[in-house]
Amino acid sequence: MAKVIEFNVYATLVCMVGVLLLGRFVIRHVKFLKDYDIPDPVVGGVIVAFVIMLAHHFYNFKLVLDSSLKEPLMLTFFITIGLSADFASLKKGGKMLVVFLIAVGIFVIVQDLVGVGVASMIGVNPLMGLLGGSISLTGGHGTSAAWSSTFSQAPYNFPQSLEVSIVCATFGLVSGGIIGGPVACYLIKRYKLEPNKQTTEQQEHEPMLVFEAPKQERLITANSFIESLALVSIALLVGTFIAKHATSVHLGSFTLPTLPTFVWCLFVGVLLRNISTYSNIHKVFDREIGVIGNVSLSLFLAFALMSINLMELVNLALPIAIILTVQVAVMILYSVFVTFRMCGKSYDAAVLSAGHCGFGLGATPTAMVNMQTITNHYGPSHVAFIVVPLVGAFFVDIINALTIKGFLALPFHY
């Protein structure tokens, strides 16, 4: 019988921070991990999970971590996404924002069709295809971990959901960083594209966006941090309350849809952001919100990753590899033949295609890195740095959540 070692919330917090520091140390000394911007919690978490697996195998003990911080950290991350969605920026994105959003929305559906279709063809649970679709690829590590907790329970009863989704999200993160630059370079050279000179001259008089000037720093103070924390706290309270009581709210024949708690929290964050903006009650500090979100996501992923059971992935390795290989090929073809063409076959469209590869397989930060690499080489694309963060960090999560709910309603044998 295995010896059980239980960690309380403080010991678990130490482990979570230790995972992040370990991941940072390893990335600093491994060029491949550094070049492709693999997150600290992914590297550290996988190493710790591997060590725990070996210790369990050779020394027969089981480590039980306190999970009380897990859900608040996850919800805080999605709230910060909502608090970053300023609808005033929609005017700057203009028509390109709408077109790109349509292209991305269609691809989310395509991604799940491919995942479920390939899984069905090779004779595995279609739920694995959904986890290897928009949940882990477009959604990333945060969305993967959020949905996997649902799939591990009834009526789906897929206990390996967390392990499968995290592996798929990690693979997608690397793949998105690898293919984004080459796709844009191919399009630029194939169609001999250049930045619009008139637009570039106009943009020289506009302030640089944070993603266009990534080294620019802004001061974070105790007072401003408390104000941002107040917004997050309100969104946590209201979002979890709505999620708990949504099914009991009836407005005539209308009933609030059943959505995961993190989706409601994200919606509340959006409302708080835009009510504050339009009423001039409070100006949301985007950089500070980003710091809170990144810290929450890192700690949450550190917990989720060091808790995964690596042994359960052995029998699933081949099906996962097949599904992900097809998904990468589809992403390349879609960005070249659909995203690029829908966005106007221009230089901006090529940069947007690189961004789509980044968050279509990995995450919005990967998209930013892809675009920065292209624009540093070929020239600026101001509109891409407006459109991609809005779509990749906010709108796509809403589309993704609705698409996943739609696929789960289909008559597949999940």
Automatic annotation (TrEMBL):
<keyword id="KW-0812">Transmembrane</keyword>
<feature type="transmembrane region" description="Helical">
    <location>
        <begin position="39"/>
        <end position="59"/>
    </location>
</feature>
<feature type="transmembrane region" description="Helical">
    <location>
        <begin position="316"/>
        <end position="337"/>
    </location>
</feature>
<keyword id="KW-0915">Sodium</keyword>
<feature type="transmembrane region" description="Helical">
    <location>
        <begin position="249"/>
        <end position="271"/>
    </location>
</feature>
<feature type="transmembrane region" description="Helical">
    <location>
        <begin position="349"/>
        <end position="371"/>
    </location>
</feature>
<keyword id="KW-0406">Ion transport</keyword>
<keyword id="KW-0472">Membrane</keyword>
<feature type="transmembrane region" description="Helical">
    <location>
        <begin position="383"/>
        <end position="404"/>
    </location>
</feature>
<keyword id="KW-0813">Transport</keyword>
<protein>
    <recommendedName>
        <fullName>Sodium/glutamate symporter</fullName>
    </recommendedName>
</protein>
<keyword id="KW-0739">Sodium transport</keyword>
<feature type="transmembrane region" description="Helical">
    <location>
        <begin position="71"/>
        <end position="90"/>
    </location>
</feature>
<keyword id="KW-0029">Amino-acid transport</keyword>
<keyword id="KW-1133">Transmembrane helix</keyword>
<dbReference type="Pfam" id="PF03616">
    <property type="entry name" value="Glt_symporter"/>
</dbReference>
<feature type="transmembrane region" description="Helical">
    <location>
        <begin position="225"/>
        <end position="243"/>
    </location>
</feature>
<keyword id="KW-0769">Symport</keyword>
<feature type="transmembrane region" description="Helical">
    <location>
        <begin position="291"/>
        <end position="310"/>
    </location>
</feature>
<dbReference type="InterPro" id="IPR004445">
    <property type="entry name" value="GltS"/>
</dbReference>
<feature type="transmembrane region" description="Helical">
    <location>
        <begin position="97"/>
        <end position="122"/>
    </location>
</feature>
<feature type="transmembrane region" description="Helical">
    <location>
        <begin position="164"/>
        <end position="188"/>
    </location>
</feature>
<comment type="similarity">
    <text>Belongs to the glutamate:Na(+) symporter (ESS) (TC 2.A.27) family.</text>
</comment>
<keyword id="KW-1003">Cell membrane</keyword>
<comment type="function">
    <text>Catalyzes the sodium-dependent transport of glutamate.</text>
</comment>
<feature type="transmembrane region" description="Helical">
    <location>
        <begin position="7"/>
        <end position="27"/>
    </location>
</feature>
